[in-house]
Design goal:
It is a single chain. By secondary structure, this protein is α/β, with parallel strands linked by helices. The protein is built from 15 helices and 12 strands. It is 51% helix and 14% strand. The strands form 3 sheets. A 7-stranded mixed sheet has the order 3-2-1-4-8-6-9, sandwiched between helices. Strands 5-10-7 form a 3-stranded mixed sheet. A hairpin with a 2-residue loop joins strand 11 and strand 12. It is globular, with a radius of gyration of 21 Å. The two termini are 38 Å apart.
Length: 375
Protein backbone atom coordinates (compact mmCIF):
# COMPACT_ATOMS: atom_id res chain seq x y z
CA UNK A 1 0.00 0.00 0.00
CA UNK A 2 2.90 2.36 0.75
CA UNK A 3 4.29 1.88 -2.77
CA UNK A 4 0.88 2.48 -4.34
CA UNK A 5 0.32 5.67 -2.35
CA UNK A 6 3.82 6.89 -3.19
CA UNK A 7 3.06 6.46 -6.89
CA UNK A 8 -0.25 8.29 -6.48
CA UNK A 9 1.47 11.14 -4.62
CA UNK A 10 4.08 11.52 -7.36
CA UNK A 11 1.35 11.49 -9.98
CA UNK A 12 -0.57 14.21 -8.14
CA UNK A 13 2.57 16.34 -7.82
CA UNK A 14 3.06 16.09 -11.59
CA UNK A 15 -0.61 16.95 -12.07
CA UNK A 16 -0.20 19.96 -9.80
CA UNK A 17 2.76 21.12 -11.89
CA UNK A 18 0.63 20.80 -15.05
CA UNK A 19 -2.07 22.97 -13.48
CA UNK A 20 0.38 25.72 -12.56
CA UNK A 21 2.00 25.64 -16.00
CA UNK A 22 -1.40 25.81 -17.70
CA UNK A 23 -2.59 28.71 -15.57
CA UNK A 24 0.62 30.63 -16.22
CA UNK A 25 0.86 30.06 -19.96
CA UNK A 26 -2.63 29.66 -21.46
CA UNK A 27 -3.40 33.13 -22.88
CA UNK A 28 -6.36 35.16 -21.71
CA UNK A 29 -8.63 36.92 -24.15
CA UNK A 30 -8.38 40.68 -23.72
CA UNK A 31 -10.23 43.70 -25.05
CA UNK A 32 -8.77 44.74 -28.36
CA UNK A 33 -10.02 45.78 -31.78
CA UNK A 34 -8.93 44.01 -34.99
CA UNK A 35 -7.43 46.00 -37.88
CA UNK A 36 -9.70 44.34 -40.42
CA UNK A 37 -13.41 43.58 -40.21
CA UNK A 38 -14.13 40.36 -42.13
CA UNK A 39 -17.73 39.23 -41.93
CA UNK A 40 -18.26 36.80 -39.05
CA UNK A 41 -21.09 34.29 -39.37
CA UNK A 42 -22.19 33.03 -35.96
CA UNK A 43 -23.82 29.61 -36.34
CA UNK A 44 -26.05 28.30 -33.54
CA UNK A 45 -27.84 24.94 -33.49
CA UNK A 46 -31.09 25.18 -31.51
CA UNK A 47 -33.39 22.31 -30.59
CA UNK A 48 -35.93 23.08 -27.87
CA UNK A 49 -33.85 25.93 -26.46
CA UNK A 50 -36.59 28.32 -25.27
CA UNK A 51 -34.88 28.58 -21.89
CA UNK A 52 -31.76 30.36 -23.13
CA UNK A 53 -31.95 31.15 -26.84
CA UNK A 54 -33.18 34.74 -26.50
CA UNK A 55 -30.36 35.76 -24.15
CA UNK A 56 -27.79 34.03 -26.36
CA UNK A 57 -28.95 35.63 -29.61
CA UNK A 58 -29.48 39.11 -28.21
CA UNK A 59 -26.02 39.11 -26.64
CA UNK A 60 -24.46 38.21 -29.98
CA UNK A 61 -26.45 40.86 -31.83
CA UNK A 62 -25.23 43.40 -29.26
CA UNK A 63 -21.56 42.85 -30.12
CA UNK A 64 -19.38 45.88 -30.74
CA UNK A 65 -18.06 44.03 -33.81
CA UNK A 66 -20.64 45.05 -36.42
CA UNK A 67 -19.59 42.94 -39.44
CA UNK A 68 -21.63 40.06 -38.16
CA UNK A 69 -24.56 37.83 -39.03
CA UNK A 70 -26.20 35.35 -36.66
CA UNK A 71 -27.56 32.15 -38.17
CA UNK A 72 -29.74 30.00 -35.93
CA UNK A 73 -30.74 26.58 -37.21
CA UNK A 74 -34.06 25.75 -35.57
CA UNK A 75 -33.64 21.99 -35.39
CA UNK A 76 -37.27 20.82 -35.37
CA UNK A 77 -38.00 22.47 -32.02
CA UNK A 78 -41.33 21.65 -30.40
CA UNK A 79 -41.23 24.40 -27.76
CA UNK A 80 -41.28 28.21 -28.15
CA UNK A 81 -37.82 28.41 -29.75
CA UNK A 82 -39.22 29.21 -33.20
CA UNK A 83 -41.54 31.95 -31.94
CA UNK A 84 -38.75 33.61 -29.97
CA UNK A 85 -36.42 33.60 -32.96
CA UNK A 86 -39.09 34.95 -35.30
CA UNK A 87 -39.72 37.86 -32.94
CA UNK A 88 -36.02 38.77 -32.74
CA UNK A 89 -35.53 38.37 -36.52
CA UNK A 90 -38.33 40.89 -37.10
CA UNK A 91 -36.32 43.41 -35.07
CA UNK A 92 -32.84 42.78 -36.51
CA UNK A 93 -32.17 41.64 -40.10
CA UNK A 94 -28.74 40.30 -39.11
CA UNK A 95 -30.50 37.30 -37.57
CA UNK A 96 -31.14 34.53 -40.09
CA UNK A 97 -33.39 31.72 -38.89
CA UNK A 98 -33.19 28.43 -40.79
CA UNK A 99 -35.80 25.72 -40.44
CA UNK A 100 -33.66 22.64 -40.02
CA UNK A 101 -34.30 19.40 -41.82
CA UNK A 102 -34.31 16.01 -40.15
CA UNK A 103 -30.78 14.54 -40.10
CA UNK A 104 -29.73 12.62 -43.16
CA UNK A 105 -28.79 8.95 -42.64
CA UNK A 106 -25.49 8.62 -40.78
CA UNK A 107 -25.70 12.10 -39.28
CA UNK A 108 -26.18 13.16 -35.68
CA UNK A 109 -28.53 16.09 -35.15
CA UNK A 110 -26.10 18.74 -33.95
CA UNK A 111 -23.40 18.28 -36.63
CA UNK A 112 -26.20 18.19 -39.22
CA UNK A 113 -27.58 21.51 -37.95
CA UNK A 114 -24.11 23.08 -37.96
CA UNK A 115 -23.51 21.84 -41.51
CA UNK A 116 -26.79 23.41 -42.67
CA UNK A 117 -25.85 26.69 -41.01
CA UNK A 118 -22.37 26.76 -42.54
CA UNK A 119 -23.78 26.26 -46.04
CA UNK A 120 -25.91 29.38 -45.62
CA UNK A 121 -23.20 31.49 -43.97
CA UNK A 122 -21.61 34.31 -45.98
CA UNK A 123 -18.75 35.11 -43.61
CA UNK A 124 -15.02 34.62 -44.12
CA UNK A 125 -14.97 33.62 -40.45
CA UNK A 126 -17.38 31.16 -38.85
CA UNK A 127 -18.11 31.15 -35.13
CA UNK A 128 -19.81 27.98 -33.91
CA UNK A 129 -21.66 28.60 -30.64
CA UNK A 130 -24.10 26.50 -28.61
CA UNK A 131 -27.55 27.89 -27.86
CA UNK A 132 -26.98 28.57 -24.14
CA UNK A 133 -23.85 30.74 -24.25
CA UNK A 134 -23.72 34.37 -23.11
CA UNK A 135 -21.23 36.69 -24.85
CA UNK A 136 -20.12 40.04 -23.48
CA UNK A 137 -20.19 42.93 -26.01
CA UNK A 138 -16.44 42.94 -26.82
CA UNK A 139 -16.04 39.14 -27.14
CA UNK A 140 -16.24 38.71 -30.92
CA UNK A 141 -14.00 41.71 -31.61
CA UNK A 142 -11.40 40.39 -29.19
CA UNK A 143 -11.51 36.91 -30.74
CA UNK A 144 -11.15 38.25 -34.29
CA UNK A 145 -8.22 40.42 -33.17
CA UNK A 146 -6.44 37.42 -31.64
CA UNK A 147 -6.96 35.32 -34.77
CA UNK A 148 -5.63 38.20 -36.87
CA UNK A 149 -2.61 38.78 -34.64
CA UNK A 150 -1.60 35.14 -34.22
CA UNK A 151 -2.36 33.84 -37.68
CA UNK A 152 -4.13 30.70 -36.47
CA UNK A 153 -7.10 29.42 -38.51
CA UNK A 154 -9.00 28.34 -35.39
CA UNK A 155 -9.28 29.61 -31.85
CA UNK A 156 -11.42 28.29 -29.00
CA UNK A 157 -12.87 30.43 -26.21
CA UNK A 158 -12.92 28.77 -22.80
CA UNK A 159 -15.76 30.20 -20.68
CA UNK A 160 -16.71 30.91 -17.11
CA UNK A 161 -19.01 28.14 -15.92
CA UNK A 162 -22.07 29.43 -14.09
CA UNK A 163 -23.40 27.03 -11.45
CA UNK A 164 -26.46 27.13 -9.23
CA UNK A 165 -27.37 24.84 -6.36
CA UNK A 166 -25.41 22.20 -4.49
CA UNK A 167 -25.10 19.52 -7.17
CA UNK A 168 -24.11 21.84 -10.00
CA UNK A 169 -21.34 23.25 -7.80
CA UNK A 170 -20.23 19.71 -6.95
CA UNK A 171 -20.36 18.06 -10.38
CA UNK A 172 -19.68 20.70 -13.04
CA UNK A 173 -16.17 21.81 -11.98
CA UNK A 174 -14.84 18.43 -13.09
CA UNK A 175 -15.05 19.51 -16.72
CA UNK A 176 -12.75 22.56 -16.55
CA UNK A 177 -10.73 21.06 -13.71
CA UNK A 178 -9.91 17.98 -15.75
CA UNK A 179 -8.67 20.12 -18.61
CA UNK A 180 -6.34 22.24 -16.53
CA UNK A 181 -5.10 19.42 -14.29
CA UNK A 182 -4.55 16.63 -16.78
CA UNK A 183 -4.19 18.15 -20.25
CA UNK A 184 -0.97 19.93 -21.28
CA UNK A 185 -2.79 22.96 -22.63
CA UNK A 186 0.47 24.90 -22.55
CA UNK A 187 1.84 22.41 -25.09
CA UNK A 188 -1.36 22.31 -27.12
CA UNK A 189 -1.02 25.98 -28.07
CA UNK A 190 2.54 25.38 -29.25
CA UNK A 191 2.07 22.29 -31.43
CA UNK A 192 -0.27 20.75 -33.98
CA UNK A 193 -0.49 17.38 -32.21
CA UNK A 194 -3.95 16.05 -33.09
CA UNK A 195 -4.74 14.52 -29.69
CA UNK A 196 -4.11 17.87 -27.98
CA UNK A 197 -6.75 19.72 -29.97
CA UNK A 198 -9.11 21.60 -27.64
CA UNK A 199 -12.47 22.89 -28.80
CA UNK A 200 -15.73 23.93 -27.20
CA UNK A 201 -19.33 24.71 -27.97
CA UNK A 202 -18.75 27.96 -26.11
CA UNK A 203 -16.94 29.31 -29.16
CA UNK A 204 -14.95 27.81 -32.03
CA UNK A 205 -13.91 30.62 -34.39
CA UNK A 206 -12.55 29.28 -37.69
CA UNK A 207 -11.44 30.55 -41.07
CA UNK A 208 -14.03 29.54 -43.62
CA UNK A 209 -11.57 28.57 -46.35
CA UNK A 210 -9.68 26.15 -44.10
CA UNK A 211 -12.90 24.73 -42.68
CA UNK A 212 -14.21 24.02 -46.19
CA UNK A 213 -10.92 22.50 -47.34
CA UNK A 214 -11.06 19.97 -44.48
CA UNK A 215 -14.62 18.90 -45.27
CA UNK A 216 -16.35 20.97 -42.57
CA UNK A 217 -18.95 19.19 -40.48
CA UNK A 218 -19.44 16.64 -43.23
CA UNK A 219 -16.22 15.13 -41.85
CA UNK A 220 -17.78 15.10 -38.37
CA UNK A 221 -21.30 13.91 -39.16
CA UNK A 222 -21.21 11.05 -36.61
CA UNK A 223 -19.19 12.91 -33.97
CA UNK A 224 -20.63 12.90 -30.44
CA UNK A 225 -18.15 15.54 -29.22
CA UNK A 226 -18.19 17.66 -32.35
CA UNK A 227 -16.64 20.79 -30.84
CA UNK A 228 -13.43 19.07 -29.69
CA UNK A 229 -13.46 17.00 -32.88
CA UNK A 230 -13.40 20.19 -34.96
CA UNK A 231 -10.10 21.23 -33.36
CA UNK A 232 -8.68 17.78 -34.00
CA UNK A 233 -9.86 17.91 -37.61
CA UNK A 234 -7.92 21.15 -38.11
CA UNK A 235 -4.83 19.69 -36.48
CA UNK A 236 -5.06 16.49 -38.47
CA UNK A 237 -4.88 18.74 -41.53
CA UNK A 238 -1.66 20.28 -40.20
CA UNK A 239 -3.18 23.54 -38.91
CA UNK A 240 -2.66 25.31 -35.60
CA UNK A 241 -5.54 25.73 -33.17
CA UNK A 242 -5.31 28.00 -30.13
CA UNK A 243 -7.06 27.80 -26.78
CA UNK A 244 -7.89 31.02 -24.88
CA UNK A 245 -9.24 31.62 -21.41
CA UNK A 246 -12.24 33.86 -22.02
CA UNK A 247 -13.71 33.93 -18.50
CA UNK A 248 -14.41 37.67 -18.69
CA UNK A 249 -16.09 37.46 -22.10
CA UNK A 250 -18.04 34.19 -22.30
CA UNK A 251 -20.17 32.34 -19.75
CA UNK A 252 -22.39 29.28 -19.75
CA UNK A 253 -24.73 27.52 -17.41
CA UNK A 254 -24.36 24.19 -19.14
CA UNK A 255 -26.89 22.14 -17.18
CA UNK A 256 -29.57 22.87 -14.61
CA UNK A 257 -29.43 20.43 -11.70
CA UNK A 258 -27.94 17.00 -11.15
CA UNK A 259 -30.34 15.14 -13.43
CA UNK A 260 -29.36 17.26 -16.44
CA UNK A 261 -25.65 16.91 -15.62
CA UNK A 262 -25.89 13.12 -15.48
CA UNK A 263 -28.04 12.77 -18.59
CA UNK A 264 -25.98 15.30 -20.54
CA UNK A 265 -22.64 13.59 -20.05
CA UNK A 266 -24.00 10.05 -20.29
CA UNK A 267 -24.29 10.44 -24.05
CA UNK A 268 -20.61 11.13 -24.67
CA UNK A 269 -18.38 9.89 -21.85
CA UNK A 270 -17.97 6.35 -23.18
CA UNK A 271 -16.99 7.79 -26.57
CA UNK A 272 -14.16 9.67 -24.82
CA UNK A 273 -12.69 6.22 -24.07
CA UNK A 274 -12.99 5.28 -27.74
CA UNK A 275 -15.92 3.01 -26.87
CA UNK A 276 -13.34 0.67 -25.35
CA UNK A 277 -14.48 -1.36 -22.35
CA UNK A 278 -10.90 -2.00 -21.12
CA UNK A 279 -10.13 1.73 -21.34
CA UNK A 280 -13.33 2.64 -19.48
CA UNK A 281 -12.57 0.02 -16.80
CA UNK A 282 -9.00 1.32 -16.45
CA UNK A 283 -10.18 4.88 -15.94
CA UNK A 284 -13.01 3.83 -13.61
CA UNK A 285 -10.81 1.83 -11.25
CA UNK A 286 -7.93 4.25 -11.71
CA UNK A 287 -10.18 7.04 -10.49
CA UNK A 288 -10.96 5.05 -7.36
CA UNK A 289 -7.26 4.73 -6.58
CA UNK A 290 -6.23 8.19 -7.74
CA UNK A 291 -9.13 10.28 -6.43
CA UNK A 292 -11.07 8.42 -3.73
CA UNK A 293 -8.78 5.96 -1.94
CA UNK A 294 -6.55 8.73 -0.49
CA UNK A 295 -9.56 10.28 1.27
CA UNK A 296 -10.58 6.94 2.78
CA UNK A 297 -7.08 6.22 4.08
CA UNK A 298 -6.56 9.81 5.23
CA UNK A 299 -9.57 9.38 7.50
CA UNK A 300 -7.55 6.66 9.28
CA UNK A 301 -4.51 8.89 9.63
CA UNK A 302 -2.31 7.49 6.84
CA UNK A 303 0.40 10.12 6.31
CA UNK A 304 0.92 9.52 2.60
CA UNK A 305 -2.81 9.69 2.05
CA UNK A 306 -2.98 12.92 4.04
CA UNK A 307 -0.23 14.36 1.85
CA UNK A 308 -2.13 13.38 -1.30
CA UNK A 309 -5.34 14.97 0.01
CA UNK A 310 -3.32 18.09 0.78
CA UNK A 311 -2.02 18.31 -2.80
CA UNK A 312 -5.51 17.73 -4.23
CA UNK A 313 -6.98 20.41 -1.97
CA UNK A 314 -4.25 22.92 -2.82
CA UNK A 315 -4.71 22.28 -6.54
CA UNK A 316 -8.46 22.78 -6.25
CA UNK A 317 -8.04 25.95 -4.19
CA UNK A 318 -5.71 27.49 -6.75
CA UNK A 319 -7.90 26.57 -9.72
CA UNK A 320 -11.19 27.52 -8.08
CA UNK A 321 -9.76 30.90 -7.06
CA UNK A 322 -8.48 31.50 -10.59
CA UNK A 323 -11.82 30.48 -12.13
CA UNK A 324 -13.99 32.32 -9.60
CA UNK A 325 -15.68 29.20 -8.22
CA UNK A 326 -16.83 28.67 -4.64
CA UNK A 327 -13.90 28.10 -2.29
CA UNK A 328 -15.87 25.93 0.14
CA UNK A 329 -16.46 23.53 -2.73
CA UNK A 330 -12.75 23.56 -3.46
CA UNK A 331 -12.11 22.38 0.09
CA UNK A 332 -14.73 19.68 0.43
CA UNK A 333 -16.15 18.85 -3.00
CA UNK A 334 -13.63 16.45 -4.50
CA UNK A 335 -14.98 13.08 -3.25
CA UNK A 336 -18.65 13.82 -4.08
CA UNK A 337 -17.59 15.20 -7.47
CA UNK A 338 -15.77 12.00 -8.31
CA UNK A 339 -18.63 9.82 -7.07
CA UNK A 340 -21.01 11.62 -9.43
CA UNK A 341 -18.64 11.14 -12.34
CA UNK A 342 -18.08 7.49 -11.51
CA UNK A 343 -21.84 7.05 -11.75
CA UNK A 344 -21.88 8.90 -15.08
CA UNK A 345 -19.14 6.59 -16.36
CA UNK A 346 -21.10 3.45 -15.46
CA UNK A 347 -24.27 4.90 -16.89
CA UNK A 348 -22.56 5.89 -20.15
CA UNK A 349 -21.05 2.43 -20.57
CA UNK A 350 -24.44 0.83 -19.90
CA UNK A 351 -26.56 3.00 -22.18
CA UNK A 352 -24.20 3.86 -25.04
CA UNK A 353 -22.07 0.73 -24.81
CA UNK A 354 -24.08 -2.29 -23.76
CA UNK A 355 -27.51 -1.01 -24.87
CA UNK A 356 -26.10 1.03 -27.79
CA UNK A 357 -28.57 3.86 -27.14
CA UNK A 358 -27.35 7.41 -27.53
CA UNK A 359 -30.05 9.83 -26.38
CA UNK A 360 -29.52 13.39 -27.58
CA UNK A 361 -32.11 16.14 -27.57
CA UNK A 362 -35.09 13.84 -27.93
CA UNK A 363 -33.53 11.66 -30.61
CA UNK A 364 -32.19 8.14 -30.14
CA UNK A 365 -29.23 6.93 -32.20
CA UNK A 366 -27.35 3.66 -32.50
CA UNK A 367 -24.33 4.54 -30.37
CA UNK A 368 -22.14 2.00 -32.14
CA UNK A 369 -22.49 4.04 -35.33
CA UNK A 370 -21.04 7.14 -33.62
CA UNK A 371 -17.54 8.16 -32.57
CA UNK A 372 -15.75 10.77 -30.54
CA UNK A 373 -14.91 12.52 -33.79
CA UNK A 374 -11.97 13.23 -36.12
CA UNK A 375 -10.24 10.12 -34.82
Amino acid sequence: MTLLLTIVLIAWLLTFATLILNLLTVPRLRVRQPRGTPLVSVIIPARDEERAIESTVRALLAQTYRALEVIVVNDRSTDATGEILARIAAEDPRLVVLTGEEPSPGWLGKPWALAQGSRTARGKLLLFVDADILYQPDAVAAAVAEMEARGAPMITLFPRFVMRGFWEHVAMPNLPLFGFLFLPLWLSNRTTITALGAGGGTGNLVRRDVYDSLGGHDALKDSVVDDVALARLFRRGGHRTLFFRADDFVSVRMYHGLREVVHGFTKNLFSVFGRSYPAAAFFFFGAIVFHLLPYVLAAFGNRLALAIVGVITLARLIFFAAAGYRIDNALFGHPPMMLVWQWITLRSVWYTGIRRQLLWRGRTYDAKATRFGAD
